């Protein structure tokens, strides 16, 4: 038993080392070909700048959205942006599961001594995320200060942000892994959910019918990425809700692991 | 060059058929565009309530958002990646040996692929119409002119997309360029927030760009925010942008294609 | 004890049996119908350490599927595989350390990274000690000329460079059992020669090799044993020399004459040989059983009667034999 645990933890450590080195190699290659980086990072920054401008324009005309003020909205969008952007930096490779399944590129990964999903996820770095991370941080900090949130909440905010990244990563992974069964080069489901998340969860859930709230909390629990944490931080929800993000993170991570495992089991390699 | 309308039509039809073959695209476009429209409806319903914002009451805003959904579905549906990939893969060298005008051929294909989403867009509008029953156009003439202004979305979307895709001659990837273009289009067209709510300098900047013609121009005409003379003026501006973008594309292409020749293809 | 052992190994794929288009997809949702397709059918295979085995067969015979079963990529429908005593599918990670795999059609290089980075990542993944890594890279550079494109991005490599780099990737951890699926596909002659020389060296150094290829020169130069598979079953398994001895029983001499050749009268004159027309009107081919006649005898007979301007000796190639094996003309 002890031996089993030792190999298990050894395996996890090895997997993490493989992941870290692969990502590091990609970071090095970014530095060597900076033009791509700047185009992507600028595009990401542009999106977020316009998002910021959107909120500023909106709040020049209204004083609140469903009771949420300007600064609270900035914190909300900050959480949404940072959750997604961090995932794009560290786990962007999963987007290619679909095309790898079609081309049979999963094959080599199965013959190597490291978890397949770790090898795939570290195949790419979403460079737009650097622009998003910087602007997202600006919005979050500016909103935080403007909303007068206490610095004592920072550890809680960081914890919930970490949970947000786990939830984003897990949901993205599970949705991309659907391509093990539904063959296609584009991760349609991940793309749809990602886009809808950007459109819908950029506003407080209070403006939507109850059904939307239920789906965002309990079916695909993306509300725990941005909405619930900010509700907790601004005192709209009771402190008990702070347990929501970790629970959602654990649940989505478990679901993602199950989906990926099942996907790999049903993988039958390309025709040739 | 022996480029004829028959060639254009053939290219457009092929591109349309290729798109229609992927039935998933339909569902995809409607879920994406429809989801965004519903979210926006919820937002503006909450914000406007019984009052008005930037001169829009809830009735006008419903029409605005449905028009915005329709034009956005068209504008984001063109086959931009196909052009970008040709440039990035160097296949363009092959295209240049063919007796067709590159820009015209791509325009035909692009418009063909845009046409493939018309059924989706119409379906979405009909659905939204039944659910939210927005007001009709301010007059039959305004309705007609709105339709004309929406037709301009086709050449304008191509013009802007083509110019942005040509940047691929200088970069190795297209994704970032696409995002930047979509962000600018979404913001300055008024899809994200009506231009009327923006501060005056930003409004002036928007109107100096081709983007407002995707959302603001059709909705202005439809809702009667401009009179007939104003509507005709906006249509003239659309026409002018169509011409400017077309010849701008030619100019940039002439410049860019030197790179292909220099590299030897 | 064999290094690789497959017992009545079978793989059946289930394919959705549906009409094309949207209607077909809908119908399929309601009444799910599938067709079974047997890619590999009860194969028994044993490979001893140090053997070099060629695995050949026509397209769609089940070669690649077998390789995927043996490497643990696919789970067998029936039967078992053991590589060094392990099941490669369920003990995937432990098995991975002992095997090296190359699929000629695909690359395992990290597309956006320099070749060197790919090799370094694999070095860490397999836990290769630095000194061993250096020695192997040096060897690969010497034999495969790796150094010239180590700093290049994988996606900028030519096909020949990519294949050499992929071979280095497959061997960087010094695997005991190596599977090469079409390692020379699409390469030009000079790169092929280089690869074959490298593979011979590999075999001489004691690595166990299973190689599939459509190029039989690869097989003849690298392998000692040949397994022929057709329609998922093994049609022949044995030493290549034996295959030749068993099936290559005739030899032929191509003669170029001054004038047009009269095949009919030659056949009358020397009925114990077989005569046929050559490619040109002035050419004629004489075929004889190598067990009955020596080449000298045949040439003596022929030159006593004819004055050929030129002649050349030929032997049916192993390619001919295998083609006939596929066609079902030969049975063991």
Characterise this structure.
The complex is a heterotrimer of chains A (272), B (265) and C (332). Chain A is mainly α and 272 residues long. Chain A is built from 12 helices and no strands. In chain A, helix 2 packs antiparallel against helix 3 (70-91), helix 3 runs antiparallel to helix 7 (128-146) and helix 8 (154-177) packs antiparallel against helix 9 (188-200). Chain A is globular. The N and C termini of chain A lie far apart (41 Å). Chain B is mainly alpha-helical. Chain B has one domain. Chain B starts with a helix and ends with a helix. The model of chain B has no long low-confidence stretch (mean pLDDT 90). Chain C has 332 residues and is of the alpha/beta class. Chain C has 2 domains: 49-69 and 84-245, Rossmann fold (3-Layer(aba) Sandwich); 249-315, Lrp/AsnC effector binding domain/regulation of amino acid metabolism (RAM) domain (Alpha-Beta Plaits, 2-Layer Sandwich), CATH 3.30.70. A 6-stranded mixed beta sheet of chain C has the order 5-6-7-3-8-9, sandwiched between helices. In chain C, strands 11-12-10-13 form a 4-stranded antiparallel beta sheet, covered by helices on one side. In chain C, strands 2-1-4 form a 3-stranded antiparallel beta sheet. In chain C, a hairpin with a 5-residue loop joins strand 11 (274-277) and strand 12. Chain C is globular, with a radius of gyration of 25 Å. The model of chain C has no long low-confidence stretch (mean pLDDT 87). The interface between A and B is medium-sized, with 35 and 33 residues.
Number of domains of chain B: 1
Radius of gyration of chain C: 25 Å
Assign the CATH topology of the largest domain in chain C.
Rossmann fold
- Let me know the average pLDDT of chain B: 90
**Are there runs of chain C of 5+ residues with pLDDT below 50, and where?**
none
Q: Which sequence of SSEs, written as H and E, runs from N to C of chain B?
A: HHEEHHHHHHHHHHH
Any idea how many domains of chain C?
2
Report strand order across the widest sheet of chain B. 1-2
Task: Describe this protein with a few key phrases.
heterotrimer, B: 265 residues, mainly alpha, two-stranded antiparallel ribbon, C: 332 residues, Alpha-Beta Plaits, 6-stranded mixed beta sheet, 13 strands
């Amino acid at each position: 038993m002890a031996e089993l645990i030792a190999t298990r933890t050894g395996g996890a450590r090895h997997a993490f080392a493989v992941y870290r080195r692969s990502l590091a190699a990609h970071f090095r290659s970014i530095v060597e070909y900076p033009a791509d980086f700047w185009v992507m990072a600028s595009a990401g920054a542009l999106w977020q700048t316009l998002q910021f401008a959107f909120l500023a324009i909106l709040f020049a005309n209204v004083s609140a959205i469903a009771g949420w003020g300007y600064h609270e909205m900035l914190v909300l969008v900050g959480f949404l942006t940072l959750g997604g952007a961090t995932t794009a930096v560290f786990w962007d490779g999963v987007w290619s599961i679909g095309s790898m399944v079609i081309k049979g590129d999963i094959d080599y990964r199965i013959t190597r001594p490291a978890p397949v999903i770790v090898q795939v996820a570290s195949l790419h770095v979403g460079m737009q995320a650097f622009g998003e991370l910087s602007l997202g941080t600006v919005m979050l900090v500016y909103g935080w200060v403007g909303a007068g949130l206490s610095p004592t909440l920072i550890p809680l905010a960081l914890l919930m942000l970490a949970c947000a990244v786990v939830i984003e990563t897990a949901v993205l992974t599970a949705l991309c892994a659907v391509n093990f069964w539904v063959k296609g080069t584009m991760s349609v489901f991940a793309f749809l959910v990602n886009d809808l998340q950007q459109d819908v969860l950029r506003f407080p859930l209070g403006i939507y019918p109850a059904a939307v709230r239920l789906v965002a909390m309990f079916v695909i629990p993306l509300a725990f990425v941005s909405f619930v944490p900010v509700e907790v931080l601004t005192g709209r929800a009771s402190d008990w809700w702070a347990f929501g993000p970790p629970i959602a993170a654990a649940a989505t991570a478990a679901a993602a692991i199950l989906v990926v495992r099942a996907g790999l089991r049903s993988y039958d390699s390309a025709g040739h | 060059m022996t480029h004829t309308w028959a060639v254009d039509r053939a290219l457009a039809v092929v591109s349309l058929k290729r798109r229609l073959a992927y039935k998933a695209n339909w569902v995809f476009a409607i879920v994406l565009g429809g989801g965004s429209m519903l979210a926006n409806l919820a937002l503006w319903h909450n914000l406007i309530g019984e009052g008005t914002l930037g001169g829009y009451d809830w009735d006008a805003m419903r029409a605005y958002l449905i028009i915005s959904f329709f034009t956005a579905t068209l504008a984001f549906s063109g086959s931009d990646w196909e052009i970008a990939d040709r440039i990035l893969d160097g296949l363009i060298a092959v295209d240049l040996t063919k007796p067709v005008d590159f820009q015209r051929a791509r325009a035909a294909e692009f418009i063909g692929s845009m046409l493939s989403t018309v059924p989706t867009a119409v379906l979405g509008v009909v659905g939204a119409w039944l659910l939210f029953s927005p007001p009709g156009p301010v007059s039959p003439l305004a309705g007609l002119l709105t339709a004309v202004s929406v037709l301009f979305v086709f050449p304008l979307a191509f013009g802007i997309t083509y110019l942005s895709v040509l940047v691929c001659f200088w970069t190795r990837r297209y994704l970032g360029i696409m995002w930047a273009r979509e962000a600018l289009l979404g913001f300055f067209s008024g899809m994200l927030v009506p231009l009327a709510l923006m501060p005056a300098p930003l409004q002036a900047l928007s109107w100096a760009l081709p983007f407002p013609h995707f959302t603001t121009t059709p909705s202005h005409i439809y809702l009667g925010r401009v009179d007939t003379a104003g509507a005709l003026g906006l249509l003239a501006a659309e026409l002018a942008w169509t011409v400017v973008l077309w010849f701008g594309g030619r100019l940039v292409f002439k410049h860019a294609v030197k790179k292909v020749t220099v590299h030897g293809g | 004890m064999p290094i690789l052992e497959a017992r009545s190994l079978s793989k059946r794929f289930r394919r959705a049996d549906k009409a094309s288009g949207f209607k077909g997809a809908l119908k399929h949702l309601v009444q799910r119908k599938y067709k079974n397709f047997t890619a590999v059918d009860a194969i028994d295979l044993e490979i001893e350490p140090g053997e070099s085995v060629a695995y050949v067969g026509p397209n769609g015979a089940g070669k690649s599927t077998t390789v995927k079963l043996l490497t643990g990529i696919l789970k067998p429908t029936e039967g078992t595989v053991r590589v060094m005593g392990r099941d490669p599918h369920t003990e995937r990670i432990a098995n991975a350390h002992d095997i090296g795999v190359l699929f000629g059609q695909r690359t395992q290089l990290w597309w956006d990274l320099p070749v060197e980075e790919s090799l370094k990542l694999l070095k860490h993944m397999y836990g290769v000690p630095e000194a061993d890594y250096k020695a192997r890279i040096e060897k690969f550079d010497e034999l495969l000329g790796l150094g010239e494109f180590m700093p290049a991005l994988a996606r900028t490599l030519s096909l020949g460079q990519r294949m050499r780099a992929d071979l280095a990737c497959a061997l960087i951890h010094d695997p005991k059992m190596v599977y090469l699926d079409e390692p020379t596909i699409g390469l030009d002659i000079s790169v092929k020669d280089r690869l074959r020389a490298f593979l011979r060296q590999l075999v001489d150094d004691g690595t166990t090799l299973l190689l599939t290829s459509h190029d039989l020169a690869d097989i003849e130069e690298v392998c000692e044993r040949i397994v022929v598979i057709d329609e998922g079953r093994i049609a022949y398994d044995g030493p290549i020399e034996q295959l030749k001895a068993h099936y290559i029983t005739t030899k032929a001499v191509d003669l170029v004459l001054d004038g047009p050749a009269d095949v009919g009268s030659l056949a009358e004159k020397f009925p114990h040989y077989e005569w046929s027309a050559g490619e040109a009107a002035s050419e004629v081919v004489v075929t004889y059983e190598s067990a009955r006649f020596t080449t000298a005898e045949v040439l003596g007979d022929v030159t006593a009667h004819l004055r050929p301007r030129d002649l050349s000796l030929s032997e049916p190639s192993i390619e001919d034999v295998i083609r006939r094996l596929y066609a079902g003309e030969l049975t063991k």
